[in-house]
Amino acid sequence: MTDPDKGTWQHEYNAYGDVIVQTNADNQKTATDSDQYGRPIRRTDFKAGGAKEEFHTRWYYDEKGAAGETVANALGKITAVVHSQSSSDEQCYLGSAEYCELYSYDSYGRSSAVASVVGKSGAEGEYVSTTSYDGLGRPYRQYDALDKTLVNAGKAITSGVQSYYTSTGHLRYVKDIASGNELYRIVDVNTRGQVAAFDVVNGLVRVDHGYDSATGRLDTQLAKNSLNSTLLARADTWDKVGDLTGRNDHGPVAGTIEWWVGDGDESGKVREHIGKMLDFYGNK
Q1: CA separation for the pair 34, 87 (Å, rounded)
Q2: d(Cα 144, Cα 128) in Å, to the nearest integer?
Q3: Nearest Cα residue to 218 out of 195, 185, 184
Q4: How does the average pLDDT of the chain come out, rounded?
């Protein structure tokens, strides 16, 4: 792939079409190993020349965690991710491991908690985000990693959101649990069930999405604030196999036109990325 900003990148693929080796214009290489189901299990980033490792990522699945422990109700699901500086360090709290994510699931196999371990041996803290569900199995309350870790006037702050649904079971709006402020509200849905318009931050911003009626692909995005000023105006184009081929960002102040050139088949592989900056009127 040739990019005007990034230069020439080279990719190697396996028999399933997955990228197994990527080399950028600075001769820095990334190698990825996958399991028999096509899921990534190891990724190693090498410095220029490929002789020395720089970063390493290890993924774990299927009811076994990073230390070989059993993770209940996790068959077919991710159980842990470990980021380190060496392929010899693939467990949390050990060696050069600097960041880990540990996943938990409820008795229905739904994600119930994610624990993030930051720093070597967890020196920079451990943070947990959790999700609870309503009687119909829909996400009800989601607490992020800052929940109960921040304090205001001597009291721990609740940090999370609560989802509200229509009588037919579709998401209607989302509120901040602590303040009660509305963060997101669906305004319009098309016949495909795609969100065609939504408000954010108590209606301060309205976002409209336009979709192709035949394919359902996203064609246009338009965002305006409460004063009707345009914040985003973007149009996408696609080829017949569903690959993104162009993006025209109209502003509001300046725009960018980008093109993606593929192999012309169903592989979806990108050979070239071209970008041009335009002023508001489309002049180069």
Answers
A1: 15
A2: 7
A3: 195
A4: 86
Q: Which of residues 177 and 22 earns the better pLDDT score?
A: 177
The string of pLDDT tens digits covering residues 1-31 is: 677 777 888 888 988 888 888 887 888 888 9
The amino acid that residue 117 corresponds to is V
* DSSP result, 40-68: EEEEEEE-TTSSSEEEEEEEEETTB-TTS
Q: How far is the C-alpha of 131 from the C-alpha of 117, rounded, in Å?
A: 18
**Long-range contact list for 87-95, CB < 8 A, 24+ apart?**
87/42, 87/44, 87/53, 87/56, 89/56, 90/56, 90/58, 90/66, 91/66, 91/67, 92/66, 92/67, 92/117, 92/122, 93/117, 93/121, 93/122, 94/121
The pLDDT score that the predictor gives to residue 52 is: 78
Peptide bond into 40 cis (omega under 30): no
Q: Where are the domains of the chain?
A: 212-284
**How far apart (Å, rounded) are the C-alpha atoms in residues 42 and 39?**
9
Give the pLDDT score at 216.
Answer: 93
pTM: 0.74
Q: What is the pLDDT of residue 190?
A: 95
Q: Judging by beta carbons within 10 Å of its beta carbon (0-12, 13-18, 19+), is residue 38 exposed, middle or buried? A: exposed
According to the model, what pLDDT value does residue 270 have?
A: 47
Enter the tokens of residue 191.
């016949």
User: What does the DSSP 8-state code read for residue 28?
Assistant: -
**Environment class of 36 (CB within 10 Å of its CB; exposed 0-12, middle 13-18, buried 19+):** exposed
